[in-house]
Amino acid sequence: MKTNIITIFAFLFVAVVSHTSFAQGKTVKANIKVFGNCGMCKERIETALDQGGVKLASWDTKTKNLEVVYNSKKITEQQIHELIAGVGHDTDKVKAKNEVYAKLPFCCLYRDHDHSGMKDDKHSNH
Question: What does the pLDDT look like over 84-98, one tens digit per residue?
């Protein structure tokens, strides 16, 4: 009887550990080109990825590179591109809708405006 109870507990333990490991999914790191200009853009892009499954999102204003670490069982890279485009920023795979892009502040408009004379430090506090 004691052996049966130990066997049952051992089986349950293995089943729970196996299920937990399987459910955690795969952590993936991706680098995505995201267009924008300033600190306001950075905040908007990173906030858009404050979603379940995204562990880290860091966008560099100079390189336009977004480093994102996410759980591929909870969110896909395509969904990440769509979330960013949804707040007005083009990625290397998804273009933001013109209506959404047009609502961005002037300093954040990256498609048709030359902001080369603006210093980013003026925009980092937006």
Answer: 999 999 999 999 999
